[in-house]
Amino acid sequence: MRKTYINGVGCISAQKTVDTVFLEEAELNESDTILPLKIPVYKDFISPVAIRRMAKGVKNGIVASALAMKEAKVTTVDAIITGTGMGCIEDSEKFLKTILENKEEFLTPTSFIQSTHNTVGAQIALGLQCKAYNLTYVNGSVSFESALLDAKMKMEEEEASTVLIGGIDEIADYTTSLFKLAGFIKKENQSPYRVLNSTTKGAVHGEGAIFFALENEKKENTYAEVLDIEILNKLKVEVLEDKIKTFLNANSLQISDIDAVILGYNGDVEYDTYYNTLSENAFVNTPQVYYKHLCGEFNTASAFGLWVGAKIIKTQQIPEILKVNTLENTEYKTILLYNQYKGIDHSFTLISRC
């Protein structure tokens, strides 16, 4: 059975993750409820004419995918698989607003066409002239893990040797206002917005596009091997540790074999209990990492978590800004990632050094 290797990464986020090694210029923003994106130089990757017609998420996706493919030294892929929770929500808002303002008359379809969730994958395929398998998963906060799982199965079944996967989500004004009304986003008067040891509900939100070039062949530039992914819709806190042990046992591993655990803390006091349970019990003697204080919460933020994990394995170091505890290991060979959102859509991802 073929293996799955991460051979290239591309990350557009609220941090400077382009033209840097690993968060050496990271900035901790604890005063905003929405983390602004570090905009790349789009004209270096997309023609100025095309840029004007593209949504923010599409532009970021194209740049991130180009960076991943460049690093992996590949020019074509056998599949493009993306995950997104909200799709190109900015264009969706534009189209709905136009419907209301024009009383459903004289509508141009551009915003509607560009608002579909699979727009990013389609635009990447058009740019590469790739007519291969192209699929977008819209599965809430496990959208990215669904894409990763699909890619891994394609590798194992020898249906593809090179797969481009990514997680993309963007922020839009009206949707953000609804999220604030629903309590998904922290209230304005509660700063500083610290993720660890938070005492308030909601999370600081963000956006981003994170892509990975996966191949069935290990190369000089390989980051890590993707060993396994598991997705669970509902899971009680009391059985979380047992589920993780079962997941690890299926891969002939134990808790003690994990060199670092990456937890999806987002500062929501109501649901961070899942992470606290692991932090204080099963992984109390394991180096612990968190990341959403740097990228914000969004449906595919776990892709940023995988980017962090891949970087840790490749650089063999954990930046101070990512540490939950002070424990360290002499070698980071096997890393477990765990994420959930509002008590549902739990995911376990296991990666290792090659």
From TrEMBL:
Keyword rRNA processing tagged: no
Domain of life: Bacteria
Pfam families associated with the record: Ketoacyl-synt_2
InterPro entries: Beta-ketoacyl_synthase, Ketoacyl_synth_N, Thiolase-like
Annotated coiled-coil segments of the chain: none
Domain Beta-ketoacyl synthase-like N-terminal positions: 43-172
Keywords: Transferase
Claim: Transferase is one of the keywords in the record: yes
Protein name: 3-oxoacyl-ACP synthase
Organism: Flavobacterium ranwuense
The organism's taxonomic lineage, starting at the top: Bacteria, Pseudomonadati, Bacteroidota, Flavobacteriia, Flavobacteriales
